[in-house]
Specification:
By secondary structure, the protein is an alpha/beta fold. It folds into three domains: about 10-55, 434 Repressor (Amino-terminal Domain), CATH 1.10.260.40; about 65-165 and about 300-330, Response regulator (Rossmann fold), CATH 3.40.50; about 165-295, Rossmann fold (3-Layer(aba) Sandwich). Helix content is about 40%, strand content about 15%. The protein contains twelve helices and twelve strands. Strands 2-1-3-4-5-11 form a six-stranded parallel beta sheet, with helices on both faces. A six-stranded mixed beta sheet has the order 7-6-8-9-10-12, with helices on both faces. Strand 6 (about 185-190), helix 9 and strand 7 (about 220) form a beta-alpha-beta unit. Helix 1 (about 10-15) crosses helix 2 and helix 5 (about 80-95) crosses helix 12. About 40% of the residues are buried.
Length: about 350
Protein backbone atom coordinates (compact mmCIF):
# COMPACT_ATOMS: atom_id res chain seq x y z
CA UNK A 1 0.00 0.00 0.00
CA UNK A 2 1.49 3.30 -1.13
CA UNK A 3 1.05 6.45 0.90
CA UNK A 4 -1.23 9.14 -0.55
CA UNK A 5 0.08 11.88 -2.83
CA UNK A 6 -1.64 15.26 -2.89
CA UNK A 7 0.78 17.35 -4.96
CA UNK A 8 0.97 16.82 -8.71
CA UNK A 9 4.68 17.63 -8.64
CA UNK A 10 5.32 14.71 -6.30
CA UNK A 11 3.37 12.36 -8.56
CA UNK A 12 5.28 13.61 -11.59
CA UNK A 13 8.60 13.10 -9.80
CA UNK A 14 7.69 9.50 -8.97
CA UNK A 15 6.88 8.84 -12.63
CA UNK A 16 9.85 10.70 -14.06
CA UNK A 17 7.52 12.97 -16.02
CA UNK A 18 6.84 16.69 -16.07
CA UNK A 19 3.96 18.04 -13.94
CA UNK A 20 2.46 19.47 -17.13
CA UNK A 21 2.27 16.04 -18.76
CA UNK A 22 0.71 14.47 -15.68
CA UNK A 23 -1.82 17.31 -15.41
CA UNK A 24 -2.83 16.96 -19.07
CA UNK A 25 -3.44 13.22 -18.67
CA UNK A 26 -5.49 13.58 -15.50
CA UNK A 27 -7.55 16.36 -17.10
CA UNK A 28 -8.39 14.15 -20.09
CA UNK A 29 -6.22 16.07 -22.57
CA UNK A 30 -3.68 13.37 -23.49
CA UNK A 31 -4.96 13.03 -27.09
CA UNK A 32 -4.99 16.79 -27.64
CA UNK A 33 -1.33 17.00 -26.65
CA UNK A 34 -0.39 13.71 -28.36
CA UNK A 35 0.63 11.92 -25.19
CA UNK A 36 1.09 8.20 -25.84
CA UNK A 37 -1.45 5.69 -24.57
CA UNK A 38 1.31 3.95 -22.62
CA UNK A 39 2.26 7.15 -20.78
CA UNK A 40 -1.37 8.04 -20.14
CA UNK A 41 -2.05 4.57 -18.74
CA UNK A 42 1.05 4.82 -16.58
CA UNK A 43 -0.10 8.16 -15.12
CA UNK A 44 -3.65 6.99 -14.41
CA UNK A 45 -2.42 3.78 -12.78
CA UNK A 46 0.02 5.69 -10.55
CA UNK A 47 -2.69 8.17 -9.57
CA UNK A 48 -4.85 5.24 -8.48
CA UNK A 49 -2.05 3.43 -6.62
CA UNK A 50 -0.94 6.54 -4.78
CA UNK A 51 -4.53 7.62 -4.06
CA UNK A 52 -3.72 10.93 -5.70
CA UNK A 53 -6.02 13.71 -4.48
CA UNK A 54 -5.18 17.14 -5.90
CA UNK A 55 -5.09 19.99 -3.43
CA UNK A 56 -8.49 21.60 -3.52
CA UNK A 57 -7.03 24.95 -2.53
CA UNK A 58 -4.31 24.82 -5.17
CA UNK A 59 -6.83 23.84 -7.84
CA UNK A 60 -9.28 26.43 -6.62
CA UNK A 61 -6.76 29.27 -6.73
CA UNK A 62 -6.55 28.82 -10.50
CA UNK A 63 -10.32 29.27 -10.66
CA UNK A 64 -10.34 31.99 -7.99
CA UNK A 65 -12.33 29.60 -5.78
CA UNK A 66 -11.44 27.17 -3.00
CA UNK A 67 -14.82 25.42 -2.63
CA UNK A 68 -14.80 26.23 1.09
CA UNK A 69 -17.15 28.30 3.24
CA UNK A 70 -16.39 29.77 6.64
CA UNK A 71 -19.03 29.38 9.35
CA UNK A 72 -18.73 31.33 12.60
CA UNK A 73 -21.16 30.61 15.44
CA UNK A 74 -21.11 31.87 19.05
CA UNK A 75 -21.42 28.54 20.87
CA UNK A 76 -21.13 25.10 19.27
CA UNK A 77 -22.25 23.47 22.54
CA UNK A 78 -25.65 25.17 22.19
CA UNK A 79 -27.98 22.68 20.45
CA UNK A 80 -29.61 25.53 18.52
CA UNK A 81 -26.37 26.49 16.79
CA UNK A 82 -25.26 22.87 16.46
CA UNK A 83 -28.47 22.12 14.55
CA UNK A 84 -27.97 25.10 12.25
CA UNK A 85 -24.33 24.13 11.65
CA UNK A 86 -25.43 20.59 10.76
CA UNK A 87 -27.95 21.95 8.25
CA UNK A 88 -25.41 24.32 6.67
CA UNK A 89 -22.78 21.58 6.37
CA UNK A 90 -25.27 19.20 4.75
CA UNK A 91 -26.47 21.78 2.22
CA UNK A 92 -22.91 22.88 1.41
CA UNK A 93 -21.80 19.28 0.88
CA UNK A 94 -24.61 18.76 -1.64
CA UNK A 95 -23.11 21.63 -3.62
CA UNK A 96 -19.59 20.20 -3.43
CA UNK A 97 -18.38 22.60 -0.75
CA UNK A 98 -16.60 22.06 2.56
CA UNK A 99 -17.20 24.02 5.76
CA UNK A 100 -14.57 25.52 8.05
CA UNK A 101 -16.45 25.68 11.36
CA UNK A 102 -15.37 28.27 13.93
CA UNK A 103 -16.66 28.94 17.46
CA UNK A 104 -16.37 32.55 18.63
CA UNK A 105 -17.28 31.56 22.23
CA UNK A 106 -19.49 34.67 22.32
CA UNK A 107 -16.37 36.85 22.35
CA UNK A 108 -16.12 39.83 19.98
CA UNK A 109 -12.31 39.76 19.93
CA UNK A 110 -12.30 36.06 18.99
CA UNK A 111 -14.94 36.72 16.33
CA UNK A 112 -12.72 39.33 14.66
CA UNK A 113 -9.72 36.99 14.79
CA UNK A 114 -11.73 34.19 13.19
CA UNK A 115 -12.81 36.44 10.33
CA UNK A 116 -9.15 37.28 9.69
CA UNK A 117 -8.30 33.56 9.80
CA UNK A 118 -11.03 32.65 7.30
CA UNK A 119 -9.94 35.41 4.93
CA UNK A 120 -6.39 34.06 5.06
CA UNK A 121 -7.78 30.66 4.02
CA UNK A 122 -9.35 32.31 0.97
CA UNK A 123 -12.84 30.98 1.73
CA UNK A 124 -15.39 31.66 -0.99
CA UNK A 125 -17.88 33.08 1.49
CA UNK A 126 -18.72 33.46 5.17
CA UNK A 127 -21.86 32.68 7.15
CA UNK A 128 -21.82 34.24 10.61
CA UNK A 129 -24.04 34.32 13.68
CA UNK A 130 -22.40 37.36 15.30
CA UNK A 131 -21.81 37.95 18.96
CA UNK A 132 -24.25 40.74 18.23
CA UNK A 133 -22.88 43.83 19.92
CA UNK A 134 -20.64 45.48 17.27
CA UNK A 135 -20.86 45.14 13.51
CA UNK A 136 -18.25 47.42 11.87
CA UNK A 137 -15.89 44.52 11.17
CA UNK A 138 -18.72 42.57 9.53
CA UNK A 139 -19.66 45.53 7.32
CA UNK A 140 -16.00 45.77 6.27
CA UNK A 141 -15.97 42.13 5.16
CA UNK A 142 -19.15 42.57 3.14
CA UNK A 143 -17.96 45.80 1.54
CA UNK A 144 -14.67 44.13 0.57
CA UNK A 145 -16.64 41.92 -1.82
CA UNK A 146 -16.47 38.66 0.13
CA UNK A 147 -19.89 36.94 -0.05
CA UNK A 148 -21.39 37.05 3.45
CA UNK A 149 -24.68 36.10 5.11
CA UNK A 150 -25.62 36.92 8.71
CA UNK A 151 -27.86 34.48 10.60
CA UNK A 152 -29.80 34.67 13.89
CA UNK A 153 -28.15 37.68 15.56
CA UNK A 154 -28.84 40.28 12.93
CA UNK A 155 -28.49 44.06 12.75
CA UNK A 156 -31.78 45.63 11.58
CA UNK A 157 -31.36 48.69 9.40
CA UNK A 158 -27.99 47.61 8.01
CA UNK A 159 -27.63 46.55 4.39
CA UNK A 160 -26.45 43.03 5.16
CA UNK A 161 -27.95 39.77 3.88
CA UNK A 162 -29.66 38.34 6.98
CA UNK A 163 -31.75 35.33 7.96
CA UNK A 164 -33.39 35.15 11.36
CA UNK A 165 -36.43 33.86 13.22
CA UNK A 166 -39.32 36.14 14.10
CA UNK A 167 -38.11 36.49 17.66
CA UNK A 168 -40.65 39.19 18.48
CA UNK A 169 -43.62 37.03 17.50
CA UNK A 170 -42.18 34.02 19.31
CA UNK A 171 -41.73 36.07 22.48
CA UNK A 172 -45.22 37.51 22.17
CA UNK A 173 -46.90 34.13 21.55
CA UNK A 174 -45.15 32.45 24.49
CA UNK A 175 -46.05 35.23 26.91
CA UNK A 176 -49.60 35.59 25.62
CA UNK A 177 -50.12 31.83 26.04
CA UNK A 178 -49.20 32.10 29.72
CA UNK A 179 -51.43 35.15 30.19
CA UNK A 180 -54.36 33.43 28.45
CA UNK A 181 -54.16 30.66 31.06
CA UNK A 182 -54.39 33.11 33.94
CA UNK A 183 -50.74 33.87 34.71
CA UNK A 184 -50.17 37.49 35.72
CA UNK A 185 -46.72 37.34 37.29
CA UNK A 186 -44.37 35.88 34.69
CA UNK A 187 -40.62 35.83 35.17
CA UNK A 188 -38.55 36.37 32.05
CA UNK A 189 -35.06 34.86 32.18
CA UNK A 190 -33.30 36.47 29.26
CA UNK A 191 -30.05 35.85 27.44
CA UNK A 192 -27.47 38.41 26.32
CA UNK A 193 -29.42 41.68 26.77
CA UNK A 194 -27.80 43.56 23.87
CA UNK A 195 -28.20 40.79 21.28
CA UNK A 196 -30.83 41.12 18.56
CA UNK A 197 -32.78 37.91 19.38
CA UNK A 198 -32.96 38.84 23.05
CA UNK A 199 -34.19 42.38 22.37
CA UNK A 200 -36.90 41.08 20.07
CA UNK A 201 -38.06 38.35 22.46
CA UNK A 202 -38.17 40.87 25.28
CA UNK A 203 -40.18 43.26 23.11
CA UNK A 204 -42.70 40.48 22.52
CA UNK A 205 -42.84 39.71 26.24
CA UNK A 206 -43.47 43.37 27.09
CA UNK A 207 -46.08 43.99 24.39
CA UNK A 208 -48.03 40.86 25.36
CA UNK A 209 -48.33 42.31 28.86
CA UNK A 210 -49.34 45.73 27.54
CA UNK A 211 -51.95 44.34 25.15
CA UNK A 212 -53.50 42.40 28.03
CA UNK A 213 -53.45 45.45 30.33
CA UNK A 214 -51.02 43.79 32.72
CA UNK A 215 -48.42 45.78 34.61
CA UNK A 216 -44.84 44.64 34.06
CA UNK A 217 -42.83 43.85 37.18
CA UNK A 218 -39.29 44.81 36.16
CA UNK A 219 -37.85 42.71 38.98
CA UNK A 220 -39.11 39.72 36.98
CA UNK A 221 -36.87 40.53 33.99
CA UNK A 222 -33.55 38.92 34.87
CA UNK A 223 -30.56 37.19 33.32
CA UNK A 224 -27.53 38.02 31.19
CA UNK A 225 -26.62 35.05 28.95
CA UNK A 226 -28.13 32.16 27.01
CA UNK A 227 -26.42 29.46 29.11
CA UNK A 228 -27.58 26.82 31.61
CA UNK A 229 -25.90 28.49 34.60
CA UNK A 230 -27.86 31.69 33.99
CA UNK A 231 -31.18 29.83 34.09
CA UNK A 232 -30.17 27.96 37.22
CA UNK A 233 -28.85 31.00 39.10
CA UNK A 234 -31.77 33.30 38.28
CA UNK A 235 -34.36 30.66 39.16
CA UNK A 236 -32.80 30.17 42.59
CA UNK A 237 -32.97 33.93 43.14
CA UNK A 238 -36.51 34.69 41.97
CA UNK A 239 -38.05 31.72 43.78
CA UNK A 240 -36.43 32.82 47.01
CA UNK A 241 -38.45 36.04 46.84
CA UNK A 242 -41.45 36.64 49.07
CA UNK A 243 -43.89 36.74 46.12
CA UNK A 244 -42.43 34.51 43.40
CA UNK A 245 -43.93 34.26 39.90
CA UNK A 246 -46.38 31.57 38.82
CA UNK A 247 -44.59 31.09 35.50
CA UNK A 248 -41.19 31.38 33.84
CA UNK A 249 -40.43 32.23 30.22
CA UNK A 250 -36.90 30.99 29.44
CA UNK A 251 -35.32 32.74 26.47
CA UNK A 252 -33.33 29.68 25.31
CA UNK A 253 -33.30 25.90 25.55
CA UNK A 254 -30.15 26.01 27.69
CA UNK A 255 -31.68 28.52 30.09
CA UNK A 256 -34.70 26.22 30.51
CA UNK A 257 -32.44 23.31 31.52
CA UNK A 258 -31.00 25.46 34.30
CA UNK A 259 -34.52 26.44 35.35
CA UNK A 260 -35.62 22.80 35.58
CA UNK A 261 -32.58 21.82 37.65
CA UNK A 262 -33.11 24.68 40.12
CA UNK A 263 -36.84 23.95 40.48
CA UNK A 264 -36.10 20.28 41.14
CA UNK A 265 -33.64 21.22 43.87
CA UNK A 266 -36.23 23.51 45.44
CA UNK A 267 -38.88 20.74 45.28
CA UNK A 268 -41.07 22.83 42.97
CA UNK A 269 -43.07 20.82 40.45
CA UNK A 270 -43.81 21.72 36.82
CA UNK A 271 -46.58 22.73 36.23
CA UNK A 272 -48.27 22.22 39.62
CA UNK A 273 -46.09 24.83 41.35
CA UNK A 274 -44.47 26.67 38.45
CA UNK A 275 -45.34 26.85 34.75
CA UNK A 276 -42.54 26.95 32.18
CA UNK A 277 -42.25 27.94 28.51
CA UNK A 278 -38.95 27.89 26.63
CA UNK A 279 -37.78 29.53 23.43
CA UNK A 280 -36.42 26.97 20.95
CA UNK A 281 -37.79 23.48 20.45
CA UNK A 282 -35.36 20.58 20.91
CA UNK A 283 -35.83 16.81 20.39
CA UNK A 284 -35.77 16.24 24.15
CA UNK A 285 -38.53 18.82 24.83
CA UNK A 286 -41.30 16.24 24.37
CA UNK A 287 -39.50 13.60 26.46
CA UNK A 288 -38.91 15.48 29.70
CA UNK A 289 -40.69 14.37 32.88
CA UNK A 290 -43.22 17.06 32.04
CA UNK A 291 -43.22 17.63 28.25
CA UNK A 292 -42.33 21.28 27.75
CA UNK A 293 -44.19 23.97 25.83
CA UNK A 294 -41.71 25.62 23.47
CA UNK A 295 -41.29 28.17 20.70
CA UNK A 296 -40.01 26.31 17.65
CA UNK A 297 -37.50 27.90 15.28
CA UNK A 298 -36.97 26.56 11.76
CA UNK A 299 -33.30 25.71 12.22
CA UNK A 300 -32.94 23.47 9.16
CA UNK A 301 -34.55 26.09 6.97
CA UNK A 302 -32.24 28.79 8.33
CA UNK A 303 -29.24 26.67 7.32
CA UNK A 304 -30.63 25.85 3.90
CA UNK A 305 -31.53 29.46 3.10
CA UNK A 306 -28.14 30.69 4.34
CA UNK A 307 -26.38 28.44 1.82
CA UNK A 308 -28.80 29.29 -1.00
CA UNK A 309 -28.37 33.04 -0.49
CA UNK A 310 -24.60 32.78 -0.07
CA UNK A 311 -24.30 30.81 -3.32
CA UNK A 312 -26.07 33.55 -5.24
CA UNK A 313 -23.25 35.88 -4.20
CA UNK A 314 -20.52 33.30 -4.83
CA UNK A 315 -21.71 32.37 -8.31
CA UNK A 316 -22.51 35.90 -9.45
CA UNK A 317 -20.01 38.50 -8.29
CA UNK A 318 -22.27 41.24 -9.69
CA UNK A 319 -25.23 40.14 -7.56
CA UNK A 320 -25.44 42.58 -4.66
CA UNK A 321 -29.13 42.53 -3.79
CA UNK A 322 -29.53 42.53 -0.01
CA UNK A 323 -31.78 39.73 1.22
CA UNK A 324 -33.47 39.92 4.62
CA UNK A 325 -35.58 36.94 5.67
CA UNK A 326 -37.57 36.56 8.87
CA UNK A 327 -38.89 33.03 9.43
CA UNK A 328 -42.09 32.39 11.36
CA UNK A 329 -41.91 30.64 14.72
CA UNK A 330 -44.42 28.13 16.07
CA UNK A 331 -45.69 27.70 19.62
CA UNK A 332 -45.76 23.99 20.48
CA UNK A 333 -48.13 23.50 23.40
CA UNK A 334 -47.45 20.60 25.75
CA UNK A 335 -47.94 20.01 29.48
CA UNK A 336 -45.63 22.47 31.25
CA UNK A 337 -48.17 25.27 31.74
CA UNK A 338 -50.90 25.10 34.37
CA UNK A 339 -54.30 26.61 33.60
CA UNK A 340 -54.98 28.98 36.50
CA UNK A 341 -58.41 29.94 35.14
CA UNK A 342 -59.90 26.56 36.12
Amino acid sequence: MHSSVNDIRDLARLLGLSPTTVSRVLNGKSEKYRISNLTAQKVRQAAKEYNYSPSKIARGLKMDRTDTIGLIIPDISNPFFADIAYSIEKEARLKGYSIILCDSVDDLKVEKELITLLRSHKVDGIIIAPVGIRYEHIINVYNSGIPLVVIDRCFPGLDLPSITSDNYQGGYDATNHLISLGHKKIACIQGMPESFPNKERLRGYIEAHENNNLEIDKTMIVGDSFVIENGYRQTRIIFSMENPPTAVFAFSNLISIGVIKALNEMSLKIPADVSLVSFDEQPYSAYLGTPMTTVNQKKSEIGQLAIDVLFKYIMDKEYRQVVYMKLKTELIVRDSVRNLRN
